[in-house]
Amino acid sequence: MASMHDLNPVVVYSASLVLPVTAPALPHGAVAVYLNRVVHVGTREWVLKALSEGPLRSKRVVERHWDGILLPGLVNAHTHLQYTGMASVGQQEYGSFQEWSDAFDVIYDDDALDKPWKDWAYDGARQLVEYGTTAAADITTDLEAAGALFSQRMHGITYLEVMGWENDNWNASGPEWLRDLVEQASQEGEAADIGISPHAPYSLESAPFLDLPDIARSMGMRLHIHLGETPSESGDAEDLYSPVSRSWRSHHWDSYPQLKSSGVHVSAIQFVDQLGSLGPDIHIAHGVYADAEDRRILRQRGVGVALCPRSNRITCTQKDAPVADYLREGNLVSVGTDSLSSSPSLDVLDDVSMLYDLAREQGYEGADLSHRLIRMMTLGGAEVMGLNIGPKRIGQINAGALADFAFLDIPVDLSSDEAYEDTLERLVREGSGTNRATVISGRVAHNNDAF
Question: What is the CATH number of domain 4-73+395-447?
């Protein structure tokens, strides 16, 4: 009797243009998928030939053609899906970050308002999939929302947010509270991989920032921090790091606000780094207030950055992230939408379009900008979460990778090299709202008459 696996066909997705990201672009390319993984990627003719001669030659082959661009599923490297129902906050204008925060708190702290975090989070995950997003870094404050990614069988990490702890309270009960929270999330059985998110240096004192990385690392979990987002987190350092040149390093500070109130103008990135809280298992969100020394620290520590340009405008961070500098200097960068409480949509391609314009406005003249942005919204997002290698790798199309794809309705012109580059530029500048189908682990999770 044939096994259930023998009844599964090999599905070949062919397209006018396939962008594997980890390999050259493929005009008239194809990707063969068996079960949940890619088995071949190449030209359509080569893929069909490889299937007819290889170990899967006895399997039934089903082809689905897309007259547009096929690329890895998009990765949203920073969002809060549980705030999907708070879109009214993100649709207003504010005079300062504090004014936006106050408007957010009016809804979040009102116990009289019904806030169905689970329903809102699940709806947000559904929206992500419709936009072609197959993985996300989702920060969860309320445990009932922790199953959002799993609800759509998405990949990524659900980060449990830690905020509002002072040193004395944290030392008395914080670590035990966190371990109980992680255990509860794990027992739910609905969360994707779990991580920890120390919120920000203005909402946590020093003790949590000292302990949380150690706790996460001892449990094999990754971390995600809001860092360099607000004007209060800026510094004035221009020189390279020296352990002896700045007296503030030799003192114990109860918190970052305490340090700043003493008259020492040190960035939040440098403060958190001094606590030993950074490393290659961490990525930060926003990174707006990051001068040359801050960016060097992030590169040296292996810390990636999720850029959220539209959210920064709504929350009034008073300036844009140094996109061009991040690109020129080689920082690991990715793209996030943030939540609907601070962004007009959950479509990563909306932020990608804005990042293109910002990079050009800031003086980035490289002809590779479209290529860099495509990497940021796919492989870059996977890399900041450690999902770019190994058996769970995403953000790329190659043999053995999980079969996550987006199908964008972008006209493809391959008549010349210039026309090809124009096609990629159209993708990053006009790609918003063009996704027509989404495949997650070989399963068609969304199909708007694409095939």
Answer: 2.30.40.10
How long a stretch of residues is the chain? 451
Q: Quote the pLDDT of residue 250.
A: 78
Could you give the residue range(s) of every CATH 3.20.20.140 domain in the chain?
Answer: 74-384
Residue 155 and residue 404 in contact, taking contact as beta carbons nearer than 8 Å? yes
Q: Give the model's pLDDT for residue 191.
A: 59
Q: Does domain 74-384 have CATH number 3.20.20.140?
A: yes
**Which residue type sits at 37?**
R
Q: Which residues of the chain have pLDDT under 50?
A: 1-2
Q: Which helix (H) or strand (E) holds 161?
A: strand 155-162
Q: What share of the chain is helix, strand, coil (3-state, %, to 5)?
A: 40, 20, 40
pLDDT at 1: 41
pLDDT at position 273: 95
Q: What is the pTM of this model?
A: 0.95
Contacts of 404 (CB under 8 A, 6+ apart): 72, 73, 134, 135, 155, 394, 395, 439, 440, 441
Residue range(s) occupied by CATH 2.30.40.10 in the chain: 4-73+395-447
Output phi, psi for 75, to 5 deg: -120, 120
